[in-house]
Structures are given as structure tokens and as C-alpha cells.
Amino acid sequence: MRIVPVDAATYAEVCSLLAKHPHMFDNIALGTAPAAYTDDAVMGGVPLAQAASGLPYGRVMFPHHTTDIAVHRIDDDTLRVWAKYFVIRGDGTAGSGDYQDTVVRTPQGWRIAERSVTRGNRPDDDPDGPSTRTLSTATWLPGEG
Prior knowledge:
Strand order of the largest sheet: 2-1-6-5-4-3
Strand content: 35-45%
Radius of gyration: 15 Å
Distance between the termini: 11 Å
Number of strands: 6
Structural class: alpha+beta
Shape: globular
Helix content: 10-25%
Order of helices and strands: HEEHEEEEH
């Protein structure tokens, strides 16, 4: 599979889009979700509203930071995005993982239509429990997974 790059303006728009997600979740501002997601967005295989309902509201969320954003074009109106994230927990330890998104062009601009999330490789004694990274190039590139 050949990765088709995007132009600098599209890349900047996608980076801005991905920056909205941690602000919404960390500030428990899901009412702003339309600024980042399509109306029928799916996260982890379930509708966004359902996925968000399982979040631990009522406590301060750990700050999320999105980094290492890679983007490739599927067609004029569809992009695949792979980004890393890390969180800094209240005890000062860090956790990490990956986002893989399908981003689509809408009349309001680029929006996340589908997001897969995996926690990074974490040891058995990790404060949030052990985990193994499950997203890979095969799940990012069309026709690979």
C-alpha cells in the first residue's frame, strides 16, 4: 500500500482537529463534540455518545496530550490518521497509547468519523493495569488489516 501524503494546509487542519479531543474530554465538555466529530461518529466500535457515557465523570480527568500525528489520504474526502497520546496521572506517572482515526470532510470542515483507541504496552504493575498495544500499520493502512 502506498501512503498518499496530504498538503500542509490539510495537515494543519487535522492537527487542530486532533487537539480538540483532549480539551473536550479533559474538561468534560462533550457538548462541544460536534466541533471534532461527525454526528454519527464511532469510538471503539460504538457510537460516540455511548463510548463517552462510560467515562469517569465526577472526577478530574488526567490531562491527555496528542503527538506524532501521521496523515495519509484515502480520497479527496477521507483521511486516515495515526497519532500517539500520553497522559500524566495524578501520581506523576505516565501512560500512553494510540489513536487511529478515519477523518472525513464535512461542510463544517474535517471531522473524526471513527476512532480506534489502544493503550500502549504497560507492565503488570501499571496503575491503570497491564495492556498491550493493538493498533499497527495493518490497522492504519487500507487493505493491510
